[in-house]
Amino acid sequence: MQLRGMPSLNSEKLRTPLTAVQQEQIQQLCHRRLERMPVQYVLGEWDFQDLTLKMRPPVFIPRPETEDLISLVLEEESQKHREKNSGLCFSVAVPHPLILEIGCGSGAIALSLLCKLPQSQVIAVDKEEAAVDLTKENAHRLQLQDRIHVLHHSVSYGSAKQLLLWGPMDFIVSNPPYVFHEDMASLDAEILCYEDLGALDGGTDGMRVIKTILALAPSLLKDSGSVFLEVDPRHPDMVENWLQAHPDLLLTLRAVHKDFCGKPRFLHIQKQSR
């Protein structure tokens, strides 16, 4: 990431005095940061996985731990491909997974999956127009716009018909709003003053959107399709209990994965084959 007019530094350039324009630019950036603007917004871009993405307020800033969510989807897709090829004397064609991301924000998850799975297609939805616009912009910057459909849509229990226009999904992936409402006030000032709080507030139990996703999943997924969610560490037991109370959904909590801090953060939920 570079300031406009300031190419990447080497030892010779380190000894070169800054121009008046560059000094003014740095002062403006420092002023924004002193006002508690997140550094991602100050710089206007940020790296996620191997991608450099445009960032602007109030669109949710992707966190480093969410990169592990990508790895889990890739691992499951690889495992499915290995199982299809198991015992065969010839290789099954490379899969063309269809992926739905709910709450795409900057497009970090969707675009990372498109890069890692070259034959994939992604349907990315967000209820905020600013997020939809930023995902589209990042998709064009990365030349991925032909493999992603970005929808301005607030997911609800009646969303299945609209989302199934592209066919049943192999995966549903989401980093949904999951902060317990009572915890919102304790978030850092950088978050409270600049980020879209609707992308964070999960309601009283942090599960308002999670429940909607799970209720929709059986209608949207192929048999044995998977849901991958990032959640609060208190949620795995709550989600398992909720699924047990709704056996008609035919969803099973397959695995709980920890983040790099050792906290239970990611859920793999699978639709049972009929």
What features would you describe in this structure?
- With 274 residues, this protein is α/β, with parallel strands linked by helices.
- 36% of the residues lie in helices and 20% in strands.
- The chain is built from ten helices and nine strands.
- It has helices at residues 11-14, 20-34, 39-43, 67-85, 108-116, 129-141, 160-163, 189-194, 208-220, 235-244; strands at 45-48, 51-54, 98-102, 121-126, 148-152, 169-174, 221-230, 251-258, 264-271.
- It has a seven-stranded mixed sheet with strand order 5-4-3-6-7-9-8, sandwiched between helices. It has a two-stranded antiparallel ribbon with strand order 1-2.
- Strand 3 (98-102), helix 5 and strand 4 (121-126) form a beta-alpha-beta unit.
- Helix 4 runs parallel beside helix 5 (108-116).
Beta-strand content bin: 15-25%
Instruction: Give the CA-CA distance, first to last residue.
Output: 49 Å
Q: Going across the major beta sheet, what is the strand order?
A: 5-4-3-6-7-9-8
Q: How many DSSP H or I helices?
A: 10
Low-confidence stretches: none
The computed structural class is alpha/beta
The major pleated sheet works out as:
7 strands, mixed
The best one-word shape is: globular
Report the average pLDDT across residues.
93
Topology order in helix (H) and strand (E) letters: HHHEEHEHEHEHEHHEHEE
- The helix content, as a percent range, equals 25-40%
Instruction: List how many beta strands DSSP finds.
Output: 9
What's the alpha carbon Rg, rounded to whole Å? 21 Å
